[in-house]
Each structure stands twice: as structure tokens, then as C-alpha cells.
Amino acid sequence: MTNNVFLLENLPNEIIIELFKYLKARDLFQAFYNLNSRFNYLIQPLTHLTYSTNKNDNCTLSYPYIYTLIINTKIENKLKCFPNLHRIILDYVTDDLISQLNNHILPNLEYLSISHTVSPFYMPDLRAIIFSNTFPNLKYCYISRMTPPYTSREWTQSLSLRFLKVNDIDSSIYISILLACPNLYFLKFKLPIKSKIQSNIVLHTSLKRLIINMHYDEWPWDDSILEDYLLCVPNLEQFRICRSISIDLNAMDYFQYYDWLSKIISRHLLVLDRFTFDLRVKRPSGLIESISKSTDSILKTFIY
Q1: Which domain does 263 fall in, by range?
Q2: Which of 55, 89, 105, 273 is deepest in the core (most CB within 10 A)?
Q3: Residue range 181-193: average pLDDT?
Q4: pTM, entire model
């Protein structure tokens, strides 16, 4: 080990830092921390250091320098042990954990992913934290489950949030998000039902990229519900919509005259640079050959 350390010390800082990226935080600190001042200096500012609660990474020496924390088991009053956290991935959430999510314990939080599978009875509290500027440096957020806020005044604003991904939402949550995140640049969400915007249109001029997943929407499609969604975001530069359909020959006849949202886009998205329409087709086995020929013809017509 001593000889290996000596050989490592002969390398320039850039190469040593690159080599450190291949080591887990526990192994890195156990092997190199406090060997000398140079290694300490190179280790402390590393931004790849990750701690996972189910990996039994109990090297407490690394805690003050952990950049990313992955929580997938119960964690007891421990967030304060990680003062340098910038990224948190929550695969397991409890009320006790939510009580620790505050700016005093996590002043540097920039990335928050909540992908837990536990019943989200505590989610209103979490959403209020996220969308009320509790973390003034938060730039990216993913939320696996959303339900409407209790009142339209429940959220204030999260001014730093720029990238947001959520799963199933409805029109009321969409409007609440636009109001709460005035500087949002990227938004991705699932719209599983025909949920028309009932309230007044909210104008959000900062949003540039939008992805709407409608893989579960009903047939025949009602594109009119999308009009108000797009009316809210006139400065979109990239728009992607994902849809799926269990198709038959009657549906293929419909596609012969479908405009692929061109009229709605031309009315409301005047600066759009890129539009992607992802279509997933589920075809009955007996119709594969005839539908395939018709689909090829339609797609050739649509490409422009």
C-alpha cells in the first residue's frame, strides 16, 4: 500500500482526481484521507462523492464531504451530518425525514428527486416545501406523485427551480406549477386523463422546453384540451408529445386526415424550433400487414 501511495503521489493532481472518481466514498476516505495534506486537499472538494443508505457506507469521515445522498432505507435524524449535500435522491420518505428538509440543514441543495413508492400521505407537506422557496438554490426536481394543492394559495414561489419532472397531474396542478415556478425552463409531466384548464390562463414566458406524456389518453383524441396548455407557454422552443393507441383500420382512416397538432402549434407556438410526436401503436395481430402498409404511407406524408 505504501508503494502504491508513493506512485500515486508522483502523478499530477488532475490524474489523481480522475482516479478518485472510480472509488466509493467509503473506500476513498478509508484509503487516502489523512495520509497527507495533499490528498486531503484533493478529496474534500470532490463533487462525485455519494452516500447510499442501503450500502452500509458507515465511514463517518466522509459525511462532511458527501455531495449526493441516496435515501432508500429509513434514516434517523441524520441529514445534519451531511452539511455539503447538493443532491438528494429519495426512494424512501418518512415524516421524520420531511421534518429535516429545511434550508438550515440543506443550505446548498440544488437537485431533489423523489421517486418513492410508499403511499404519499405526506406529499402535500413536501410539495409546499419544494414550491415555496424553502431551498433557494434548488434548480432540478423530480416528483413521482402529485395531487392538487389544498388551496391555490398553498404554494408561494420557487424562484430558482429551472427543471421539473412530475408524473400524473391534471390541469389544476399544471397551473399551480406555472404560478409557483416563474423561472422554469424545462417541464415534463404525464397527463393521463382529459383534464381541461378551467381557470384563467396563466402566461409563463420563461418555459422553453415542454414534454407531455399522454400514453394513456382516450380514443378518439381530443386535441382541444391541449390548446390552453400551450397557450400558457408562448415562448416554447422545443415541444414533445408522447401518445399511444390500440389501433384498428378505422383508426388508420382517421390518421389519413389528422393534422398532428399543426394548427394548434401554428396558432400558439410562434417561436417553436423543434416538435416531436412520439406515437406508440398497439396493433392486433390479424391487422399487422394491412396497418403497416397504411402507417408507412401516413408517416411518409407527415415527415417534413
Answers
A1: 163-304
A2: 89
A3: 93
A4: 0.80
